[in-house]
């Protein structure tokens, strides 16, 4: 911490780095140093080398940021996430920097305790105090159960990869039950999205409750490392945290199981038609109709890059149309929806995300139900009221609208 603070002072007073930029780069630097143990062993020598190389550049903000970024990148190579970090979790230390790195990752990703809606970041806040913590570290394979199957010793039982955060009441009730007994009981009470988020945040392998203990530990070490990697991407502004269960809608695989329904719609594209002589504005309008109809019905998910028959076509044709990257494409799609439906309603009810299936990229637009009627401007500029009827989108007019919204 002190050595990172020293670099913060150098950046502020000697390199005149903007406060916001300095905060970002030092946050990443501290994350990297803590996770890799950069200043352990011979800390003064490493620090002197870091500062000596820093002094070789110009006293400009850009050099300071680029220099630290380059050192971070040199540490966070693919092998670190895939090999080095999982090996570091072969540890039973309660104060391991790698364990704290995982806790930091859960904070950054907006995670909640397992089986719970209580945010870990709120409970770990030093300003929050109580006689007993609302969440506790729980042995996923309880201690007494492990001893009953012949696994003994602190090293084996207290593996970092055997811990997860639970509300203390859940922890008490689980007690020493084997995971095959308690996990299905608690997990079944969660919604599909809640289960998906819990598996992701808490790095739970599929069917983990029935796995052999050491096989589970090895696989969970790998998954924890990937969660930490994702959290660094959030810190590095490469991705957004999934801060609520609802943030993550159905996957492409889940959509394909149901095909098109009142809450699922597939579109081959949002800009460029796969058929001849269909102008862009017609393709645009088909997207707008679906989004507005979902809002006026029960919500749903629009998948762009999938044909009506469920063939994965991908976004390549749309992206190539204006030579856009994903950020530009998302910005274009958001702007289209805001201009045609309204800024506030899109901001509150719509989330855009991307998913890769094989070598194809699909855009998923999750839409929540609106608590008031939503009108969309069609290509002629007329306000139109759309609803979902089965797996199709229909227009209502005049009294039909009143009858529909009064129900």
Report on the architecture of this protein.
A hairpin with a 2-residue loop joins strand 8 and strand 9. Helix 2 packs parallel to helix 4, helix 5 packs across helix 13 and helix 17 packs across helix 18. The N and C termini lie far apart (60 Å). About 1% of the residues have low confidence. With 407 residues, the protein is an alpha+beta fold. Strands 3-4-6-5 form a four-stranded mixed beta sheet, sandwiched between helices. The longest helix is centred in the middle third of the chain and has 23 residues.
> How many angstroms does the end-to-end distance come to?
60 Å
Task: Characterize the largest beta sheet: strand count, sense, and whether it forms a barrel.
Answer: 4 strands, mixed
Report the principal-axis shape: globular
Question: Strands of the largest sheet, in order across it?
Answer: 3-4-6-5
Structural class: alpha+beta
Number of helices: 19
- Show unreliable segments: 243-247
Q: What is the rounded Rg?
A: 25 Å
Helix content: 40-55%
Series of secondary-structure elements, N-terminal to C-terminal: HHHHHHHEHHEHHHHHEHEHHHEEEEEH
Beta-strand content bin: 5-15%
Q: Kindly state the mean pLDDT as a whole number?
A: 89
How many strands?
9
In short:
By secondary structure, this protein is an alpha+beta fold.
Features:
four-stranded mixed beta sheet, 19 helices, globular, alpha+beta, 407 residues, three-stranded antiparallel beta sheet
């Amino acid at each position: 911490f002190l050595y990172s603070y020293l670099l913060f002072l150098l950046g502020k007073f000697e390199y005149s780095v903007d406060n916001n930029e300095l905060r970002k780069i030092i946050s990443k630097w501290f994350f990297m140093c803590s996770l890799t143990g950069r200043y352990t062993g011979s800390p003064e020598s490493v620090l002197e080398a870091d500062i000596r190389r820093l002094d070789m550049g110009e006293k400009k903000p850009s050099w300071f940021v680029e220099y630290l970024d380059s050192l971070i990148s040199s540490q966070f190579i693919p092998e670190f996430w895939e090999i080095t970090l999982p090996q570091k979790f072969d540890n039973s230390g309660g104060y391991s920097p790698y364990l704290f790195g995982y806790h930091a990752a859960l904070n950054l990703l907006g995670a909640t305790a397992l089986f719970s809606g209580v945010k870990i970041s709120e409970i770990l806040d030093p300003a929050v105090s109580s006689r007993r913590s609302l969440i506790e570290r729980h042995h996923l394979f309880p201690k007494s159960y492990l001893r009953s199957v012949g696994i003994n010793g602190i090293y084996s039982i207290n593996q970092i990869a055997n811990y997860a955060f639970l509300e203390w009441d859940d922890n008490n009730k689980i007690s020493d039950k084997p995971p095959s007994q308690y996990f299905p009981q608690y997990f079944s009470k969660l919604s599909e999205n809640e289960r998906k988020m819990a598996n992701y945040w808490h790095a739970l392998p599929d069917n983990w409750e029935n796995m052999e203990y050491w096989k589970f530990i090895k696989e969970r070490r790998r998954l924890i490392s990937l969660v930490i990697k994702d959290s660094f991407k959030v810190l590095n502004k490469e991705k957004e945290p999934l801060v609520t269960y609802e943030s993550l809608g159905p996957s492409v695989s889940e959509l394909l199981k149901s095909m098109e329904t009142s809450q699922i719609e597939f579109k081959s594209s949002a800009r460029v038609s796969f058929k001849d002589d269909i102008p862009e504005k017609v393709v645009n309008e088909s997207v707008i109709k679906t989004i507005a109809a979902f809002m006026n019905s029960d919500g749903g998910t629009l998948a762009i890059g999938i044909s009506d028959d469920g063939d994965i076509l991908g976004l390549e044709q749309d992206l190539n149309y204006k030579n856009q990257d994903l950020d530009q494409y998302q910005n274009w799609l958001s702007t289209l929806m805001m201009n045609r439906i309204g800024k506030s309603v899109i901001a509150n009810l719509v989330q855009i995300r991307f998913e890769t299936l094989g070598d194809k990229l699909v855009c998923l637009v999750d839409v929540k139900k609106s608590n008031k009627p939503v009108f969309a401007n069609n290509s002629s500029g007329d306000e139109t009221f759309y609803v979902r009827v089965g797996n199709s989108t229909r227009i209502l007019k005049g009294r039909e609208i009143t009858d529909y919204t009064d129900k």
